[in-house]
Amino acid sequence: MNFRLRLTILFFTLAGLCLADLVPSHDLLPTNTLAVLSIPEVSVAKSAWLASNPGRLWQDPAMTAFRNQFENSFRQKWLTVLERESGLDLRELLDLTRGQATLAVFPPLPVEPGSEDSGANWLLLLDTRTESAALSKALEAARARVGTNAPPTAKTQQVGDLRFTTVTLDLQMAAAAAGKSPSAPGEALEDEDLRWELCYGQVGSAFVAGPSWAAISNALPRLTATNASPGLGSKASFGRLWNSTLKDRVVWSYVDVASLYERLSPRLEGVFGMLSLLGADPSKVVPATGLTSIKALGGGVKSTTNGWTTELAIEVPAAERVGLTRLMEILPMEAGLLEGVPEGVASFQRWRIDGPGGWKALEASLKRISPQLSDLARITVESAGQVFDSNFNLQRDLMGALGNDFITFTMAPTGTNLVQLSSPGRIQMIGSPNPARLVSGWKALEALVHMQAGALEFSQRLGAGDRKVVVATVNAKGGSQNAFQLTTSSNHVVIASDAVAMDAYLAAAARGIPGVPGLAEAAAGAGGTQRGMFGYSQPQIELRATWETLRSSESLAAVMPPGTTSLETVQTVESWANFKLLPPFETVAKYWTLQAISGGTDAEGFRFRWFSPKAP
Fold first, then answer.
1. What is the pLDDT of residue 396?
2. Which is nearest to 579 in space by CA: 73, 46, 12?
């Protein structure tokens, strides 16, 4: 470290170190912060977690055997190695944390020639508040433990009353987590990517850690209140998200997407370099998608007496939306349940989006990237559609036939192995002013999905109520296989993954709008069904079959079809979690309550809210 940096750190350190409590993270962090994850009050968050559905599930006596085995595996494979390498007692450290726990990421530090410091730049803060003396004692014990390592792996930096320890973490737990035998303590790994530096120490009441002494010293002026420049809270995008989404939350997160893109854009241009062969400018690809119009993300979790609410805000100014961000604009329309949705579905989601306007936005993006690429895409889709209908016209049968209603729901999982259970029957409903015309457009898109139009063949059958159902099959090595089934209603094209799902839809359509227990309350907690996007999931239906299959199987390999995963992967998962120790699903089913989500778009961007009702 050069002499000027030493003097600077010494000045800031002597200016005042004894902070009784850390200021809020948004005032503590600088304006160039790229991302933050913060728990403002760890003691409050712990209580809220224990009262939540997941917290109650994890602590339920029925879960004791599974929980103990998993936690023991976690301690052996991660904590033991990490504590040995760092000297820290992580459980003691977390127990001492009373105030905020904040992890922040900043732009990489410049790396000086010959410097051992990494360009990585992040900071972890754990505020113990009144436990400053206990923290000092814990860190002294950590330095004593790491000082016994042979060969020595720790270095100490001390300026004024500050003392920081830098250790090299030989992350053998990465090998253990992959199912490989770790090397002996102190033995060097061949993979240098598994050797990380960690610098930690104490500032006032807070435990402070970072990837290097350079990263820590760069943060000290703000930590010691000797830097009076505006903090993250003064940034406009953060301020808006703070007031709408982050303030008074149990946990919150913020990402400065615009600054991240600015740093990553040169690399992204290299990724799309091959498009130059089609006359495209690689530098225009990401802007044309609309992703550069996303300025920031903010998310927060709030605990109430009725359950948990999670909110996500995506800042995308209306005037800058193009491509995907224009396509995904949500119209303020009713998005609740409708006929055709069976009562026992595992999940439901409905988006009110301007289909023709979204398609035009995608076309405009392709033209912005490359007119040649846009023409190629149009010709490809039209050619695929004309294989089945010589009169197919892209503008009339696809773009002009799209409506503003897009619905997806999944059926209860069935099957005898995990692959089958993870692929339940699915229904898609696409709103259309002319469903019969849109059928031709959908066939064209499906033909492209299956790589070549000739691979698809269509036949017809009669479903419930003598409804005509188009059956699409695809030619494969093992013979003809179901691809999808298709029918129309007065306002939608209906696409089912298989005959069972299609027949369930047809039967439900004759019974009217379904009644789902608890849905009205969950929907109200999420913000209602009128914002333009609404959905719900029923975890008891989604998880029951998979849970019972895992706990009743002799091994994980027995419920994985041959060739779907390696034996090494199976053994690694089983070393972490013994699923045979899970209790019967019914004994913990009450914790898996129905969950709802709603979303909408305003002038500033997209807003989504999830609500999980509290279990009885």
1. 84
2. 73
